Amino acid sequence: MNSFERVAWQRGYKYIAGVDEAGRGPLAGPVVAAAVVLPPDYKNSEINDSKQLSARKRETLYEQIKQDALSVGLGVVEAPVIDRINILQATLLAMKDAVLDLTIEADYLLIDGRNKIPSIESVPQTAIIKGDSLSISVAAASIIAKVSRDMIMALYHRQFPQYNFQKNKGYGTKEHRDAIKQYGFCKIHRRSFHLKSKKEQQKTYDLFLREAADDE
User: Fold this and answer.
1) What pLDDT digit, counting tens, does each position of 99-127 carry?
2) Is 3-154 a domain of CATH 3.30.420.10?
3) Rg (CA), the chain
């Protein structure tokens, strides 16, 4: 899980940040990104793609990562901005904010997915497809982003309990869609997101199951 980090260290980079996001697919709430700089040759066999972990394990690792990491940064982009600039640009903005939130200036970035962060091109970057299962730094960032977003949605649940954000985390479950039909949108709904077909509904629900799995 640290082969990408080792290559960067061997090339002389010192502060390597893994970057990942949570919340691209929901109908409500922010997209949240995290950046994590781990100590050189850091090992923790339990750190993995956040979608492969139970909520309880994610929360335990969240505390461990925050304790062990050299620095952790967070970026949050809320629904109105997502609607204005689209989810891809909002995700890249959240990633940029997470990197800039680090207390240590990263000199190399490992980013989950296909896209580099165009607004900080001065920092060398590698985009890694399925990076959260291949890089310990990216996996750590995925855990921080996921748990942080879940905490945010728990706070929104207190404001808008009728949508049950505590459980669905803003994803398009049947219960959530039925609540939208009954109560309409609230301020954290993404007005630009529409479920136009059963196929799209199922795709969104499948993403919810992968990203927001509850404890068994």
Assistant:
1) 999 999 999 999 999 999 999 989 999 99
2) yes
3) 17
